[in-house]
Amino acid sequence: MLLRRCLMLIALAGCSNEAPAGPPSPDGALFAREVYPLLLRDCAFSTCHGASERFFRVVGPGRVRLDPLTMPDDPTTLEELHLSYERARDMLADAPTAAESLLLRKPLEASAGGQSHLGADDFGRNLYGSQSHPSYVTLARWAGSQGVLPSLADLPPPPAEPAP
């Protein structure tokens, strides 16, 4: 009798229409190539999303480094890319659609469907004034993509050495 009840509960649990919990897995190569550079440019300042106490953290060249012994202009490390990818990916979780996620709503002007964000410019505007802003389009395209974690092959190449 107990075995039958357990089997019935297991069978019913498998019939759920709910999606599994957890963040989606957007394309890692697209992140490394297009999204990571714009997040470094727009978000990764030491007092903003470069700070260790921030949930959404972006680290890398020219900004805050994950390892304080890494020189500011050294190439991106795989650990920095993975941390930045995972934090951006986590900002997509707990939303019915990518467009409703914090990653896409926070940097967008409220008049364009965004949400309050302390990362406003000197004029009180959020990063992206509309959903047609090129950086917002890139971020949204990545958020809706499917893929795997970025790999070593996805790391941007180091800058070329100047000719002697």
Question: Describe it for me?
Answer:
This protein has helices spanning 2-13, 28-43, 78-90, 102-105, 134-143. It is 34% helix and 0% strand. It has 5 helices and no strands. With 164 residues, it is mainly alpha-helical. It is globular. It has one domain (24-145). The longest helix has 16 residues, at 28-43.
Gyration radius (Cα, Å) is 20 Å
| N-to-C order of helices and strands | HHHHH
Broad shape: globular
Instruction: Report helical residue fraction.
Output: 25-40%
Number of beta strands: 0
- Sketch the major β-sheet: none
- Determine the mean pLDDT: 81
Structural class: mainly alpha
| Parts with pLDDT < 50 across at least 5 consecutive residues | 1-20
Figure out the total of helices: 5
Distance between the ends: 83 Å
Please indicate the count of domains. Answer: 1
Strand content: under 5%
